[in-house]
Amino acid sequence: MFASCICAASVRTLTRLCALVLVVAVGLGSELRVRVRLSDGLVTEEVLEADNERDSISLEFKQGDGTLITFVADFKQDVKIFRALILGELERGQNQYQALCFISRLNRNEIIPSESMARLRQKNPQAIRLAEERRGLEQLTMSVAVNLSRALQLSSHIHNMCSEAREAIYTRESDVKHWLDKGVDGSIFEGLPQTTEVPSFQACHSTKDLWQPCLCTYSLRLEWYPCLLKYCRSRDTTGKGSTYKCGIKSCSKGYHFTYYVPQKQLCLWNEET
């Protein structure tokens, strides 16, 4: 449990509770480092940063296999970006690492606002945090490629986040329709071959030829992030009631992406074991 609260003197129990976890420290910066346990049992450090000026939040951590996962929530544009920097298999002709970017709409109540994130502070930085709510796995079919050089109007974060991915930036058709309705230029997007149009496409894990096109999948999980604000009630000396922010709720959520690749060589983690 985390708290970003200025506890009223009359609410002593809540005050003691807040002292055990996180407290507000306005003006001391916007970076928060949190130790979390991954699904494989390993402990990693998440770095969460809030940028009030750009109205965005970033979250970054390294998985047990060395993959660097970065998530950005752009509240100005209602866009979220996932980036994975995956260590390559040099002995199999891959580069030192492979970059993937997945972009989709940011919905309400997915994560707390940037101004609230900027105020979170940790009282015990050595504690290993566990999310209060484990949200369901979200399945996303990423059937559209995003042109990096034209993606600025979609989100100013895409160029910095996805420049290393370049040819591996994906989004969903339903999100594209939403953005087109909002006036985003359609030249940003390019449709990819679909499973229904090309029934001969196989999943990459069952494709033997490294140079054949196939359907790749990639999964990741954000193990801990502040997903909702909590509100408490208090009364003044006259008995008048009021509400105030007294903490956050933490969540964990998994994402499973399916997308087309022109060759299995770009999806070696999908091999059968």
Summarize this entry quickly:
The chain has 273 residues and is mainly β. It has four helices and 14 strands. It has one domain.
Secondary structure blueprint with pairings:
Elements: H1 12-20, E1 31-37, E2 43-51, E3 56-62, E4 68-74, E5 79-87, E6 97-105, H2 114-117, E7 128-129, E8 133-134, E9 138-142, E10 144-146, H3 158-162, E11 169-171, H4 173-181, E12 189-191, E13 214-235, E14 241-261
Low-confidence stretches: 1-29
Can you tell me the number of structural domains? 1
Number of H/I helices: 4
Q: Approximately what portion of the residues adopt beta-strand conformation?
A: 35-45%
What is the overall shape?
A: globular
Structural category is mainly beta
Q: Helix proportion of residues, in percent? A: under 10%
**N-to-C SSE string, H for helix and E for strand:** HEEEEEEHEEEEHEHEEE
Give a short account of the largest sheet: 10 strands, mixed
Structural Rg: 21 Å
Let me know the average pLDDT: 84
Q: How many strands appear in the DSSP assignment? A: 14
Q: What is the assembly state of the chains in this entry?
A: single chain
Distance from N terminus to C terminus (CA atoms, Å) equals 38 Å
Strand order of the largest sheet: 7-1-2-3-4-5-6-11-10-12
